Amino acid sequence: MELSIGEMALIAIAIVVLFGPDKLPQIARDLGAGVRKMRGAVEDIKTEIMKETDNPVSEIKREIEKVKDAAKDFNPMKDVQKDILSDPAVSNEPPKPKPADDETHEGPVSR
């Protein structure tokens, strides 16, 4: 909203006529105090909004860090390597014969 010089002069004359020249300094002080309070309230609202919007973001970041830490310790190949590298003589199961050595193995059946 832009006011021209003529509009501002008209507003000033109206204020002087309505309130008188004696009350003009008090009106200016009260108006300045009101503007300061309004600016302070706007800053408080901005701060609260920033706090509220920052909390979900920081919670998500913490969860991502937890997942990253868990992923560092997780090794899906550990169990597979343990099974592959384990000595069959140590296990309780007898070793399975290879199909070529097994006389009872019939192989795939075609229909």
TrEMBL record:
Tell me which Pfam families the record gives.
TatA_B_E
Q: Where is the composition biased (Basic and acidic residues)?
A: 72-85, 95-111
Native source species: Chryseobacterium soli
Q: What is its main location?
A: membrane
What does the entry give for GO biological process?
A: protein transport by the Tat complex
Mind listing the UniProt keywords for this protein, alphabetically?
A: Cell membrane, Membrane, Protein transport, Translocation, Transmembrane, Transmembrane helix, Transport
A single MF term (Gene Ontology): protein transmembrane transporter activity
Q: Please give the name of this protein.
A: Sec-independent protein translocase protein TatA
Gene Ontology CC: TAT protein transport complex
Location of region: Disordered: 72-111
Q: Where in the cell is it found?
A: Cell membrane
Q: How does it sit in the membrane?
A: Single-pass membrane protein
**Assembly description:** Forms a complex with TatC.
Functional summary from the UniProt entry: Part of the twin-arginine translocation (Tat) system that transports large folded proteins containing a characteristic twin-arginine motif in their signal peptide across membranes. TatA could form the protein-conducting channel of the Tat system.
Q: What family is this protein classified in?
A: Belongs to the TatA/E family.
Give me the gene this protein comes from.
Answer: tatA
